Amino acid sequence: MLSFQQPAFYQSSKCFVTHGVMGHVDPKQPPSKGKPWTTFAGQDFVYSADLILPEEVFKAVQAKLLEDEAIPEYKRVVMSLHDILSGDFFSNYIKAGSILMLSEGRRGIDNVFALRNGYLTMFLDKESYERAGLVGKPHGVKGNRGLKSRWFVEIDLNSSSMIKGKKGYDRLIYASKNAFSEPMTWLFCNVVSTVPDPDPLAAFSPTTCTSNPSITRDIGALVPSLTPPTGTAEHTARDELEDFSSEVYEWLSLVRLQSPRILANDQIDPYLSLYRVPEGSKPARVCKISWRGFLSPSWTRQAMIDLITALPSKTWFSFSTTIFTKGLAGDNTECTFLRPPNSSGEYLMWEVKSHE
Amino acid sequence: MIVPTKKDHQSIAADLLNRAFDPEEATKILTEKVIQRPLFLCPTSPPPADARRARQLAAKRAKEQRRTKSLKPKPLSATQRKKQGLYKIPKEGQKYKLFEPLHNLWLGYIREILGNEVYTGGEAAAAKLASADFHGAGVEVVRSGCVSRVGIKGIVVKDGKFAFEIVTTKNKVKVVPKEGTIFRIEVPVPMITKTTETSEDKESEREEKKESKMVFELHGDQFQFRSADRATRKFRAHFSKTL
User: What family does this chain come from, according to its entry (chain B) (predicted)?
Assistant: First the structure.
C-alpha cells in the first residue's frame, strides 16, 4: 500500500545576539520588563542552567545560591489526564496555584501534554485528535491540503468556563476519559513555594528529585577579553560585534561542555582540533556550576537577581538556560547571558531559537 | 322566365374551360381532370412526396405525443419533498423515551440475527451486521473529522443514505453525516455462566446471569447506502485515506 510520506523539512537553529544595558535591579521588586528578563520568562520548561564565574567570587555566590532553599526540586509522577483535571488536584493546584507539568514523549511522534500558566497544550496525532472531539489547530509542516496529520489543542484552564457542569469542561473530561485514558508519566514542578495542606499529589506517590548543582571549581582556563568592542567606525561596528560575539559564545560553550581545549596547558595536535582561544586571552581560574532537572523560568529569574545582587559589580559572569526540546530533530533552544567585566548594567545575550 | 333545358345546360366547369381553352382541349380537360378525377379515400396514405410535408407531419405527431405525456404525474423534486415534510419528526415526537421501545425491539432483532456470534464476534458477525437495519440502534459518535460531532449519543431515528438522524437523551434530533465518522454501537448481551457448588447433601448448579456487552464500531465512510440497498450489497474492504 502506498503510504503518502509527510514532507520533512528542516530549518537550522538561529542565534540572535543582543547587546544592551540593563536597568538597576532591586531584589524587592523583581524586574519583569525589558530584554534580558522577558527572554528568560518566555522560556517554558527549563532543562538545564549553567553558571560560569571567575574563581575569586565563588565564595560570594556560594552562600546565596547553594543553600537549601534555592535548590530547585521537581517530582516525577504517573497520572492520567483525568486525574489532573478533576478532584482536589484541579482545584488546589491548577485553579488556586501555579504549576508546571510536562508529559513524557516527543512532539511529532507521541502525544505530549504540557501545562503552564494555566494553559493546557496537547500535541496530538490525527487519531487521538479525532477521537477527542476538542477544537484545535494543525501543527507541523504546512501544506498537504486535507492530510493534516498532527494537531495541537490549547485550553485555558484558569478561565471561568472551566468548571464542572459547563460544556467546555465536560467535553474536556469526555476526551480525557475516552481518548486519553491511559496514565502517563509527568514531570511536575510547583512554581510557588506553598504546598496545599493535604497534598493532592501524594495520592499518586510521586518520586521527588532535587536538582543539586554540580560544581566544577578551579578550572585553569585561558579567558579571553570579555569586553565588547566600542568606539569603532560605524561601518565596521557590526562586523566587529559579530566577530566578538561568535568568538565569546564559542568560548563560553566550550567551558560549559568542560572541553579541555580552553585549558591553559592544552596542547593538542592541530590535525585533531583547529580551535584556538581568541587573541588576548590570559590565564585565569574559572568555575562552573550547573543545574539539571525540571526548572521553572521564575527560578531562573530569581537566580539571576541573586547573582546580580550578590556579585561585586566589576566581575563578569555568564548564565545560560536550555529548555526541553520541542521538535523531532532535538535542536537546542537556549538563552545565554554575559555580563562583561567592569561594566555596570551592560550585557550581551545570545538567544538560540530552533525551528519549532 | 327562361328555364335552361338539359341540352343547353353546360356545367360551370365546362363553361369556364370553354372560355380559356379551345373546344377540343376543353372537353379533354373536363373528362380527365374533372369527371374522372380520382377521389382518394385516405388522402395521406401514400406518404407525402416532398420533405416539407414530411416535416410538418412529424412535428404534428410529436406535439400529440407531448400532450399525452404531460398528463402523466411526475415524481417530486427534493425541494418539494422537503416542503411536504413527510419525514420530519414533529416537536412532540422528538422525545427519547418514545423511541426506547423501538430500541429494545432493535436489540432483540440484532441478537436474533447474530445468534451465537454475539459472544464470538468476528468476520461472520461483521457480514451480518453490515446488512442489518439500523433504525432504532443506540449509537455514539466516537471519532470524526468534524470534532463537534464527537460525543453525540442516542437512538437512530432515520437511517438515510448519507446521514443518521439521532435523537439524544436531551430530546433533540441531531443529523450526523456518515462521512468521516465512526460510530460505536453496544449490544448488551446476557451471559450465563454456570458455577458448581458442592455441599454436603447434594451438588447444585447455580446459573449466574451477568450482563456483558458486544461493542462494535461502524465506519460511516463505507456505510453510505440506504438501508434497503444494504441488504443485498456485498461489502468489500476499502483502504481509507483518512484513517
Answer: Belongs to the eukaryotic/archaeal RNase P protein component 1 family.
